[in-house]
Amino acid sequence: MKMKVNFAATGNMNFFLIHKQIGQNQWKPIYKSELQGSKKGFTEWNLVNVLASDMAGEADVEREVRIDFYISQKSGNHKHCGMVSLTLAQLKENTTEFPLTDKKGKALKE
């Protein structure tokens, strides 16, 4: 999977984590991005390659994948800014926009 993300953020250094679902409400991190600074309120990350088999497996294209966005804090208490949920099937259908939600799945205001 190749991904390039623009994310509105006010923090200086931001990162994201990709998680695969391993059970009901159970997630395993499979990728952590590099720290990236904000420019004009947006963070743009480099393209990343993540294998489909790492996210869900070729046979399970409907398994949910979650991407969580954070503002990095020196204390280690990183601020969660939102998340998106998607499936490999959506990516294969060339879906390019996903709603940003909070941890409870409630849509965040843009």
Description:
This protein is mostly beta strands and 110 residues long. It has one domain (2-92): Immunoglobulin-like. It contains 2 helices and 9 strands, in the order E-E-E-E-E-E-E-H-E-E-H. The chain has helices at residues 52-55, 88-92, and strands at residues 2-3, 6-8, 13-23, 26-32, 36-37, 42-44, 48-49, 64-71, 79-87. Strands 3, 4, 5, 8 and 9 form a 5-stranded antiparallel sheet that branches. A two-stranded antiparallel ribbon has the order 1-7. A hairpin with a 7-residue loop joins strand 8 and strand 9. The longest helix has 5 residues, at 88-92. The mean pLDDT is 83.
List its traits.
two-stranded antiparallel ribbon; 8% helix; 110 residues; 43% strand; globular; 2 helices; 5-stranded antiparallel sheet; mainly beta
Summarize the topology:
Layout: E1 2-3, E2 6-8, E3 13-23, E4 26-32, E5 36-37, E6 42-44, E7 48-49, H1 52-55, E8 64-71, E9 79-87, H2 88-92
Antiparallel strand pairs: 1-7, 2-6, 3-4, 3-5, 3-8, 8-9
